[in-house]
TrEMBL record:
Keywords: Cytoplasm, Mitochondrion, Repeat, WD repeat
Identification of the protein by name: WD repeat-containing protein 26
Ranges annotated as biased composition (Low complexity): 33-54
CDD domains associated with the record: WD40
Residue stretches of each WD repeat: 292-333, 338-369, 550-582
Cellular compartment(s): Cytoplasm; Mitochondrion
Polar residues bias: start-end ranges: 1-28, 56-68
One CC-aspect GO term: mitochondrion
PANTHER family: WD REPEAT PROTEIN 26-RELATED, WD REPEAT-CONTAINING PROTEIN 26
GO biological process: proteasome-mediated ubiquitin-dependent protein catabolic process
Positions of the CTLH domain: 113-172
Amino acid sequence: MQANGAGQDTDSEVSCQNGAQNGESSSAGAAHSNGVVSVTNNGNTVSNNNNGVSAQPASNNNSPTDANSGVKKKKRLSQCEEDVIRLIGQHLHDLGLNQTVDLLMQESGCRLEHPSATKFRNHVMEGEWDKAESDLNELKALMHSPSAIVRMKFLLLQQKYLEYLEDGKVLEALQVLRAELTPLKYNTERIHILSGYLMCSHAEDLRAKAEWEGKGTASRTKLLDKLQTYLPPSVMLPPRRLQTLLKQAVELQRERCLYHNTKLDSGLDSVSLLLDHACSRKQFPCYTQQILTEHCNEVWFCKFSNDGTKLATGSKDTTVIVWHVDTETQQLKLMKTLEGHAYGVSYLAWSPDDAYLIACGPDDCSELWLWNVQTGELRTKMSQSHEDSLTSVAWNPDGKRFVTGGQRGQFYQCDLDGNLLDSWEGVRVQCLWCLSDGRTVLASDTHQRIRGYNFEDLTDRNIVQEDHPIMSFTVSKNGRLALLNVATQGVHLWDLQDRVLVRKYQGVTQGFYTIHSCFGGHNEDFIASGSEDHKVYIWHRRSELPIAELTGHTRTVNCVSWNPVLPGLLASASDDGTVRIWGPAPFLDVQDSEGLNECCSMDS
């Protein structure tokens, strides 16, 4: 590289011609792939446009470059080093720093891409379709799959056809369709669609129907991105390759971060590339923000509404309390108390639109209560028989039906007025869940299994089989994973689609009490569960060991619920009569809030 008109010493020379890949060598005075090369002429720099071959630095007459000069040349660059230089060159080119790219390629002796690829790129971007099509013949010899030429030619001709149509050159477009696209005998279905665009009355109509940006840089750049996928990266780099690699690195760091619980912009502008990503434990819901003491007996259940604005808690004291969640301060205040559940409330289910709340009792309770949350009025009090045990309930996604059952063999489907629509005989239900298909109901039973029941065609099938009683279970939002609390075993994660046990989470104390766990946090990356040792345990979904053990309760923690909208808010209900609301540390310093601190230990 020439600087300030002075000749460059050969100590700075590096020989890394990519010609080793493509069967060509670089020669002095030839242009590199950026299309411009600087050649020294008496200390002055002149430009030469020669379509894309790499260049060696030109030496001046006073520079000791021959073998007898005693100057030791630098070793050839490794393949990895060449790749990095090409990536940097591409990124600089995308930023418009073309002179910098020229100097980088000249000094390194590398080239950004094969000269045939450069020529092809220029012809595509200039809309010279005949020349671009001719370039494909040169590129064919460099491709791993020469048959891909047909697909590339199809993409080129499609763009040519659309541009003719936009320009109002209907006859020329028709000629491309009949004489060039159709003879390829490729993707005839797409050709039929393209022929329909001949009927478009104006350019805006064409762009809308074809979902196309129109003639110009945007659509041609998108075309080039598609065409590149058929070319080896040694010939033409994938578009924005350095940015892609950096995004992948950032995403991998986020995935490996045990406490990452926020939705960040997928772009690189929201993060620093100068530091590794690490969220602080202080940003995680490990700290008691509020203790709700309005219940006067054991609290058996808690559940946030689907929109995250309310929390319902059920207690042995015969009441359900509905709490309002202030989404700004994340503080809760009492909204309504629903009374009269003589046996206590051990299970609650919000309707899909959060308008209704169903309350169930313990084993000896034969009644189910359906409340209008807004008015506080009891809409339905359902009981089929005094001998029934209705301990679990799940809403159909349509919000017009629900299923309920218990361990005495009842399994019903009902409407909002409590009318019986269907029933399944002899199923001793422990816990229920309706899948998003609106037909399948999952039910854990006394045979240590979860089965799928279809009320429409009255079929059932085994999905999960455990060796110990399943005390409760819940299902992820996408319906793929199930989280089971298994007696004496703890918390198990199952894949419902593959019907395999994925993970057993350690630490929790689970006997024969019914304890309810949950998915939660951003993207449901976390799992939380109560425990008989008075703690709340939190795991990252991928890790068997807990990342946090939350202390504060003084008796068994029966249930946990993670707010589905506010990933930093968690509730826990305990036999100590309280509901604890967990959130991030109340005061974060600047460094913590930016997620730069190392993760703390898991002890609260």
